[in-house]
Design brief:
This protein is mostly helical. About 60% of the residues lie in helices and about 0% in strands.
């Protein structure tokens, strides 16, 4: 430690940030220009390779400058591994084709999702059950009506008994008054 240099493996410098390199804006612009130039050259080669047989889709693309490069990638999909070399037809594979807004059919019948269909079926079943219940055709409705009939009979009997008791009290009260009036008359 008499040399004056301290090699720290500790926390002062750390390993992070040592080899960090920043790309200048000029380098980024140069890379973008190079990529654009390369894409133009490839396009020219493809068009020159086709000759007199012009693909109407490609001609349309060259005329429409509004279309993005993403739509170009729809026609030229990148293959992983040997996928591009071997032609495989998988019947289970579903290729999703993207549609443009102008191609959408808003007036046509809308297909419902499974959950939406189940929800509608559930509501319809509930409505059918309520109609049958109100008509008295379900087991629960029959049981409710039977229970209601029993309760009505019990209430009628209770009302009849009360009426008889009241008549008996009235008769007793009237006979008691007669007896009282008779005893007063004597």
């Amino acid at each position: 430690p008499a040399t004056g240099f301290i090699l720290s493996a500790g926390r002062k410098g750390g390993h992070k940030g040592r080899a960090r390199q920043y790309t200048s804006p000029e380098e980024i612009d140069a890379q973008l220009q190079a990529e654009k130039q390369k894409a133009k050259e490839e396009e020219e080669l493809e068009e020159a390779g086709e000759g007199a047989i012009g693909d109407p889709k490609k001609e349309k693309k060259s005329l429409d400058s509004d279309e993005s490069e993403e739509e170009d990638s729809d026609y030229q999909q990148k293959h992983k591994g040997v996928e591009g070399l071997i032609d495989i037809e998988n019947p289970n594979r579903v290729v999703h084709a993207s549609k443009k807004v102008t191609q959408l059919d808003l007036d046509g019948p809308k297909e419902l999702s499974r959950r939406e269909r189940e929800e509608i079926e559930k509501q319809q079943a509930k409505e059918r059950y309520m109609k049958m219940h109100l008509a008295g055709k379900t087991e629960q409705a029959k049981a409710d009506l039977a229970r209601l009939a029993i309760i009505r009979k019990q209430r009628e009997e209770a009302a009849r008994k009360k009426e008889e008791e009241r008549k008996a009290k009235d008769e007793a009260a009237t006979t008691g008054k007669r007896l009282q009036s008779l005893s007063l008359n004597k």
